[in-house]
């Protein structure tokens, strides 16, 4: 009897061993929040992030739409932490909430990579596992201003009243947003430093949104002063596209400049509806976010075995000015 039981036990052990599946290396679980999915630029960056994750094969993304509400984003972060993600990759709704978000990661001892909205060095420095991927927002304003100057100098007809001064309207992004403030300041500062005077006729927030920007520009153009606008500068392409629709509705042609170089904007440059934009390199930002996230999750240095350079605690992906002269380099 004992011999029979031993044979049965041996048989069960063999069956058990034979049925055990070989498991591959555990995937890195990255918890991602995007401030809102339907933002033109963030939509393309999110798609690039998914492509890079699929190419890597060892990554599982948890993607969340924060619907432009910081409270929703905070809850999403708490949920991802409770699910045991290996690293957080966060596009803040409100840059002022950076300290709160980083503290959540610190309390859970989870590395965090913030991207596209800079929380500032002080916040990043509060946690040894916090880093940022983005760019230098001043550059985007400089490139936008340089492109505007180049075209203004080349085409005297843009000076509609012949006074040598650019009468302009400015569409700003989110109030207080570091990129919005820097782009607004440095675009005009660059134009002035090139020896061209400017006169601000209108300035208002379009909240990065095409529909809202269209409404703002429509109201401007409906006023007597609106007829004297010579140029529209927008903090992003989404608002620039809205401005184009408003000018078309009023049967007015104006040089309009954006930032981001999304494909729709590049098509508008090609057909002459948009004067210029600035490449906000979302593809390389997405690549840097994934590279840093994987390294931190695997307890490596943030830029180990990559080509990225660290500026204090940030990877800065450079901007590039885009107009009809170099459009072919960026149009897919």
TrEMBL record:
Keywords: Calcium, Metal-binding, Periplasm, Signal, Sugar transport, Transport. GO terms for molecular function: carbohydrate binding; metal ion binding. SUPFAM superfamilies: Periplasmic binding protein-like I. Residues 30-300 form the Periplasmic binding protein domain. It is found in: Cell envelope. It holds the Pfam family Peripla_BP_4. PROSITE patterns: PROKAR_LIPOPROTEIN. GO terms for cellular component: outer membrane-bounded periplasmic space. The ABC transporter complex is composed of one ATP-binding protein (MglA), two transmembrane proteins (MglC) and a solute-binding protein (MglB). This is D-galactose/methyl-galactoside binding periplasmic protein MglB. It comes from Oceanivirga miroungae.
């Amino acid at each position: 009897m004992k011999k029979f039981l031993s044979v049965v036990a041996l048989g069960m052990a063999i069956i058990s061993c034979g049925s055990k599946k070989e498991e591959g290396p555990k995937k890195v679980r990255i918890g991602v929040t995007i401030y809102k999915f339907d933002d033109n630029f963030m939509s393309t960056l999110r798609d690039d992030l998914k492509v890079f994750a699929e190419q890597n094969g060892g990554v599982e993304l948890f993607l969340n739409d924060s619907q432009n509400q910081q409270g929703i984003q905070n809850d999403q972060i708490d949920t991802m932490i409770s699910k045991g993600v290996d690293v957080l990759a966060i596009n803040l709704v409100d840059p002022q909430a950076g300290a709160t978000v980083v503290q959540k990661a610190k309390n859970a001892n989870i590395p965090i990579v913030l991207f596209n909205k800079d929380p500032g060095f002080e916040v990043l420095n509060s946690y040894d596992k916090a880093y940022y991927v983005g760019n230098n927002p001043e550059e985007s304003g400089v490139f936008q201003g340089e492109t505007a100057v180049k075209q203004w100098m080349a085409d005297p007809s843009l000076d509609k009243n012949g006074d040598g001064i650019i009468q302009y309207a400015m569409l700003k992004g989110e109030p207080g947003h570091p990129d919005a403030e820097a782009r607004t300041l440095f675009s005009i500062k660059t134009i002035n430093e090139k020896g061209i005077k400017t006169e601000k006729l209108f300035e208002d927030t379009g909240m990065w949104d095409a529909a809202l920007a269209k409404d703002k520009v429509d109201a401007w153009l409906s006023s007597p002063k609106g007829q004297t606008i010579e140029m529209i500068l927008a903090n992003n392409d989404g608002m620039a596209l809205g401005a184009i629709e408003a000018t078309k509705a009023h049967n007015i042609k104006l040089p309009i400049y954006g930032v981001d170089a999304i494909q729709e904007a590049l098509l508008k440059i090609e057909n002459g509806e948009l004067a210029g934009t600035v490449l906000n390199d979302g593809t390389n930002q997405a690549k840097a976010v994934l590279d840093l996230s994987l390294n931190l999750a695997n307890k490596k240095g943030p830029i180990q075995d990559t080509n990225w350079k660290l500026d204090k605690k940030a990877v800065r992906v450079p901007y590039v000015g885009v107009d009809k002269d170099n459009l072919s380099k960026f149009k897919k």
